[in-house]
Amino acid sequence: LRFIKKTLKTHADEVVTLHKGTPMTLKAVFQSMNLSTYDLTVDMLDVHADRNTFHRFDKFNAKYNPIGESRLREVFLKTDNHMNGKYFARIINEVAADLEESKYQNAELRLSIYGKSPGEWAKLAKWAIQYKVYSDNVRWLIQIPRLYDIFKSNKIMKNFQEFLNNIFQPLFEVTNDPNSNYELHKFLTHVVGFDSVDDESKPENPMLDADVKSPEEWDDDENPPYAYYLYYMFANITVLNHFRKEQGLNTFVLRP
């Protein structure tokens, strides 16, 4: 809340997003929602976690939208937006500075990789290095939403193997040759592990048997079961960890 108010006062005329192709300043975004700095309160932001958020992923997700506005989420809480995640990085830097000042508090923050394209890692690492979101009191965990079915229905990919390739291939490449993307190499030294996220209340058929399809054959429109996602994430991370250990690099845990 402090950050949003401060930014509204000092950077009101900064272009923060494109709305139907036309640039919008921060001031204009708030005007379009009929809001001023004086209206904003912690209650209004509505980002508190309560009991329901732990049972229902959709409710948990909705809490990422300050005042229930996805536009504010995009402006303030995304690494990949019109301003290349500048505000999000500033918030993180402020939080990190508070942690460093209090000395004995640490945070493990999450960043998302969606597996939509192989370029996501390079983009995220560039953001992290450019804005120096580094702190001794902060470690990064990468969360991977289980969104294969959405990418498949939007014809972004043909099979599940493509999803796995987009996530893991860049990591194997940069482990093999850190100079192929030095920013990513540097960023990965502050990543401790991976998380798998989605709506856990969705019913699914968890059957996995010997004749289950392999990832390159999995071209169904529906999502593979949770156990399938986890098995292939685990298998890839295990091999990657052996490789990184041989190269004298840090390894990752799977903490879904």
Automatic annotation (TrEMBL):
Entry's Gene Ontology molecular function annotations: AMP deaminase activity; metal ion binding
EC number assigned by the record: 3.5.4.6
Pathway: Purine metabolism; IMP biosynthesis via salvage pathway; IMP from AMP: step 1/1
UniProt region (Disordered), positions on chain: 198-219
Pfam families xref list: AMP_deaminase
Cellular component GO terms, alphabetical: cytosol
UniProt keyword list: Hydrolase, Metal-binding, Nucleotide metabolism, Zinc
Matching SUPFAM superfamilies: Metallo-dependent hydrolases (SSF51556)
A Gene Ontology biological process term: IMP salvage
Cofactor: Zn(2+)
InterPro entries documented for this protein: AMPD (IPR006329), Metal_Hydrolase (IPR032466)
Superkingdom: Eukaryota
Family in the record: Belongs to the metallo-dependent hydrolases superfamily. Adenosine and AMP deaminases family.
Listed name of the protein: AMP deaminase
Organism name: Poecilocampa populi
